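Protein modeling request. Please complete all fields; requests missing the sequence field cannot be processed.
Requester role: graduate student
Desired output: 3D structure, C-alpha cell encoding
Chains: 1
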Amino acid sequence: MYRGMNAQERVYIGTDSGATTSKVGGVWADGAPVSTTLLQRPTLAEHGPEAAVQGWVSAADEYLEQNALSWERVHGVGLAIPGPYERYGVLGKMSNLPASFEGYDVHAAYSEALHRRAGRPIPLVVGNDGNLGGVAEARRVLDEQGAAEGTVIMLAPGSGLGAAYIGKDGLPLDGDTLAGMEAGHMPLPLQVLGAEAYPCGCGRTWGCAEVYTSLAGLPYLLEERLPRHPGHPLADSPLPAKERVMSLRGLAQEGDPLAQEIFDFQAKALGLHIASLTMALDCRYVVVGGGLMDPGATSEAFRERYLGIARETADMYFWPSQRGRVHIVGAALGDLSQAIGAALVAMLTDTQP
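Delivered output (353 residues):
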C-alpha cells in the first residue's frame, strides 16, 4: 500500500526542536501546508536527548491524529535543530541545551524512533533551524509574488541574527558542516555605521552583524546612547539591565526618541548587511523575520519604518542592476516557519518511488 501510494496523498512531517519547546508541522506532496495551526509541546531536554526524541515522536503522533492522518501516509520527516554540529546529524556543544546533548547522533536516534513507531524506515533529513525556516519563508514569498523560481535570503533578528540562503531548487545553503550562512557573524563596515567594535558572544571582536542588529547588542547601544538623551527615564530606572533593554521595543512604538534612534540604527545595520550579502549571492528576495516583524509584538508603523530604513540603506550599495529588482519584505509564517521548512526539505529531497 505504501509503495503504490499516489504522490498527492503523501505527507511530510517537520519537527522544529527548540531548547524549551518543539513544534510540529506538515506539508502535502505539492508543498501546501497540511494545517496552519501550531502544535507545540515541551522539548523535555532536561530529561536528556532520548526523552526529547521520544517527545518528538509523540508530538508527530498527535499532529497526525489531529489532522486525521496515519503514519502510512508519511513519506519523510525533517528535523530543524540549532547548531553547532560535529558533523551531519551529530550535535556539538550547545549553549542552550544540557551537556548530555553534546556528541549525540540525533539523526540516528530519531530515525530509529520513527522506524519503531511507523513500523518501517522513514527518510529523515536534519538541518539548521534558521536555514529551514528560510526554506518555508522562501516558498511563501515566491508563491505570493507568483514567481516560479528565485533565490532568497532570510535574516531574522531576535536574540541573535538567524540567516539563510535558499537557492532556486528551494533548498538551503548548508555547507559541509551545516554551518553555511552563519552570516550573523560576518563583520559589518563599522566605519559606515560610525560604531565601535562591540564584542560578540561568539568570541569575535571584528564587528559581528549580530551585535548591531539583534537583542544581543541592545545593551551596548543603550549604554552608548543614553548620555545623548538627558533626563530619559531609563537613565535612572531601577529596572535590571535586561528589563530596560526589553522595554525599548515598546518605547519605540510609543515614539520615544532614544528607542527609535536605536532601532533606526539597527535597521541601517541590517540594510548594510543585506547589501553585502546581495553583492555576494545576487538574490531576488530578502525576507526579514524575527520578533521585530511579528504583528503580535510590533505595530505596522514600526515594521514599515524599520523595513523602509533597511531598504533605503541597502539600495545605496546595491549594484545598479540590482536596484529596483531586489525585494525586501517582512516574514509572515512566524513560529510555523521552521517546522514547515523542515517538512518542505523532506519533500524536496524525497527520492522514493
